[in-house]
């Protein structure tokens, strides 16, 4: 595939156009990162940039004192007081604009209210909310007083929410009465109440009135958000937090049964998302950034909140479904708010291709398009470049993970020739590699494990409450200095990186990580199920979908029961597209041999390695009948 060079108009105005940035970062790694850090506000400077004495726990900006809320809000008051910080649109088209001064007042008031409710530095504050300005305010209010926020995606079931709250030890929860999704009212407070039945550690619940639906308010526990903040003063001192105090915990799926709470730092994380918003998303003062992720995922944390707000940019926050009332809604939003930087996931890109009349929208404000979350195929890359950006916008495919906090591999838009389908090269100051199973560098086109060899400030502090898993999942295959990402990738002849997918028991549905082991565990809990195996199968829109193989006496309602259980225990995101009842699962050495099932289903190949190969053949036949 030939390279596409960054459009000239773009290059002229880009934040970074000197290719020496790569060599400079290599020669002086510390200076490189410190120069970004110095652009932020610190109460006290750090004593040491990097500490690896407790590897694989790496620390940056040791003993530096910084507050994330101060940097995202107060720092901008002098020059950007009346500038829009957040432009919000609800699904029905209602909108609100919050200037930096508004944000300052709202964050200050809520942080004072939280303090009055007894929240202290180090306490965990849960946020169970859709994309509302109050969700951003809640994050920044918690950060302001040194509390750690634990955002729970609103689409998660009460059980998942309870698990996350319990695991992290949430003390106070901020939620909303309800919200709209594809025109339907979702009663979120009811879900929160259900979760709080299961986890009793929450002393106070703050409820944002968003939809006005009828809800139960529990005396002494539940507080109306508006009433609570009305009495509070806007002025609120920022807690002097340490660079390595946790800013937030966010849950993600791994190749273990339960979701893991990834802990992120305050200083290093902020520096990383600030730097990458500047060099990869090329954010400038006049930009309107539309990041389509939900705030409940890391992408929302990093590129709808901490990155752009620490830079003082304007963020467009959309609450509803991207395909409501139709698939062109995203283009409508870009036109309406003059979006200049559009950051999205391949699943949405594939959906957007269904909007027939793209040229009836004025998308001329766009100047950069970014993608994250799953492989962006060359065909979709080209469509973005030609049809959406009209060849005037670089398209940056950015690779990173919940664990990395911010972008790790991506083109620098004005510098790196782009190859559709490739994530290009690691950012300056970061070193990655591709290893074969023995730890040797892979040759071009040889599929291997994507690893990170040089740490960077955005990297996680650890896994909440599970240091064993931290070491075992990421640092056992290649040692304490080489981070295992869990992805397979290969180099091409120019050293460009191509991501092929997960190497572990995790799949990627519409850019969200789903653990196959977690699904299997939940399904096996049903009395009727003797055994089961979940695998990922290609899906035209979502990238991957789930096929579930269940050993059970088929009964009329078992499939429905399984679906209900998955929806309740995990969420709709983990629902299988296909459930197949089988008599037996293929095994090797007593373990379910999932690759044999995958090969039979996807490649139509029968693997002879399974001890009971007949079973594999039966599965293949069944799929043929089902297809
Ligand atoms: C996994 C991380 C980072 C925010 C969203 C997802 C996959 C991520 C790309 C990309 C191909 C990608 C990887 C990774 N992934 N970006 N540009 N091309 N695959 O965060 O839920 O932590 O998932 O998403 O498999 O490991 P996450």
Protein architecture, described:
The chain is 31% helix and 25% strand. It has 20 helices and 30 strands. The chain has an eight-stranded mixed β-sheet with strand order 11-10-7-5-6-12-13-21, with helices on both faces. A seven-stranded mixed β-sheet has the order 4-3-15-14-16-17-18, with helices on both faces. Helix 2 packs across helix 3, helix 11 (267-279) packs across helix 12 (298-311) and helix 19 packs parallel to helix 20. The mean pLDDT is 94. 5'-O-[(S)-butoxy(hydroxy)phosphoryl]adenosine is lined by residues 252, 298-299, 372-375, 397-402, 423, 485-487, 499, 502, 508, 511-513. Residues 518-589 form the AMP-binding enzyme C-terminal domain. Residues 74-454 form the AMP-dependent synthetase/ligase domain.
The whole-angstrom Rg is 24 Å
Lateral arrangement of strands in the main beta sheet: 11-10-7-5-6-12-13-21
Distance between the termini: 33 Å
Q: Assign the structural class, choosing from mainly alpha, mainly beta, alpha/beta, alpha+beta, or little secondary structure.
A: alpha/beta
Outline: globular
Strand content: 15-25%
Low-pLDDT sequence parts? none
Helical percent range?
25-40%
Largest sheet: 8 strands, mixed
């Amino acid at each position: 595939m030939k390279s596409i060079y960054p459009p000239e108009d773009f290059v002229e105005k880009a934040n970074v156009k000197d290719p020496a940035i790569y060599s400079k970062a290599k020669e002086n790694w510390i200076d490189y990162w410190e120069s970004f850090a110095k652009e932020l506000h610190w109460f006290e400077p750090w004593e040491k940039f990097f500490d690896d004495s407790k590897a694989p726990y790496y620390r940056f900006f040791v003993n530096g004192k910084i507050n994330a809320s101060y940097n995202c809000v107060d720092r901008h008051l002098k020059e950007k007081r009346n500038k829009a910080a957040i432009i919000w649109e609800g699904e029905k088209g209602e909108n609100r604009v919050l200037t930096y001064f508004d944000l300052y007042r709202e964050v200050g008031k809520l942080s004072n209210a939280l303090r009055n409710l007894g929240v202290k530095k180090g306490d965990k504050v849960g946020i169970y909310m859709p994309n509302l300005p109050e969700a951003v305010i809640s994050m920044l209010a918690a950060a302001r007083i040194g509390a750690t926020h634990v955002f729970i995606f609103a689409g998660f079931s009460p059980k998942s929410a309870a698990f996350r709250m319990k695991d992290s030890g949430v003390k106070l929860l901020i939620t909303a009465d309800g919200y709209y999704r594809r025109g339907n009212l979702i009663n979120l407070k009811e879900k929160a109440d259900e979760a709080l039945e299961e986890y009793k550690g929450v002393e106070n619940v703050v409820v944002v009135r968003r939809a006005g639906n009828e809800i139960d308010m529990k005396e002494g526990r539940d507080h109306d958000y508006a009433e609570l903040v009305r009495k509070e003063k806007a002025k609120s001192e920022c807690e002097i937090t340490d660079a390595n105090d946790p800013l937030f915990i966010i849950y993600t799926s791994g190749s273990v049964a339960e979701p893991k709470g990834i802990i992120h730092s305050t200083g290093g994380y902020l520096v990383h998302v600030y730097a990458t918003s500047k060099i990869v998303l090329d954010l400038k003062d006049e930009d309107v950034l539309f990041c389509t992720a939900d705030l409940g995922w890391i992408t929302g944390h990093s590129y709808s909140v901490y990155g752009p707000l620490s830079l003082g940019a304007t963020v467009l926050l959309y609450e509803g479904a991207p395909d409501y009332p139709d698939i062109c809604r995203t283009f409508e939003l870009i036109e309406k708010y003059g979006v200049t930087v559009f950051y999205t996931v391949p699943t949405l890109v594939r959906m957007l291709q269904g909007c027939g009349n793209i040229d009836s929208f004025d998308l001329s404000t766009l100047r950069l398009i970014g993608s994250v979350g799953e492989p962006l195929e060359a065909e979709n890359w080209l469509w973005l470049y030609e049809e959406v950006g009209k060849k005037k916008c670089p398209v940056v495919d950015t690779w990173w993970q919940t664990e990395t906090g911010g972008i790790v591999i991506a083109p620098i838009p004005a510098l790196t020739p782009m190859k559709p389908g490739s994530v290009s090269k690691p950012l300056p100051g970061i070193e990655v590699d591709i290893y074969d199973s023995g730890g040797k560098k892979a040759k071009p086109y040889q599929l291997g494990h994507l690893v990170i060899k040089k740490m960077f400030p955005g990297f996680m502090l650890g896994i909440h409450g599970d240091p064993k898993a931290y070491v075992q999942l990421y640092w056992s295959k290649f040692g304490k200095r080489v981070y295992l990402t869990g992805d397979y990738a290969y180099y091409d002849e120019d050293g460009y990186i191509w991501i092929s997918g997960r190497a572990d028991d995790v799949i990627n549905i519409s850019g969200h990580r789903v653990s196959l082991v977690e699904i299997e565990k939940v399904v096996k809990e049903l009395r009727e199920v003797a055994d089961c195996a979940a695998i990922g199968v290609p899906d035209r829109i979502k990238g991957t979908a789930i096929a579930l193989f269940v050993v059970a006496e088929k009964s009329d309602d078992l499939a429905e029961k399984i679906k209900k259980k998955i929806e309740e225990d995990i969420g709709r995101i983990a629902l299988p597209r296909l459930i197949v009842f089988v008599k037996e699962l293929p095994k090797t050495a007593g373990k379910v041999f999932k690759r044999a099932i995958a090969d039979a289903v996807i490649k139509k190949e029968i693997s002879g390695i399974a001890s009971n190969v007949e079973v594999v053949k039966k599965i293949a036949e069944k799929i043929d009948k089902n297809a």
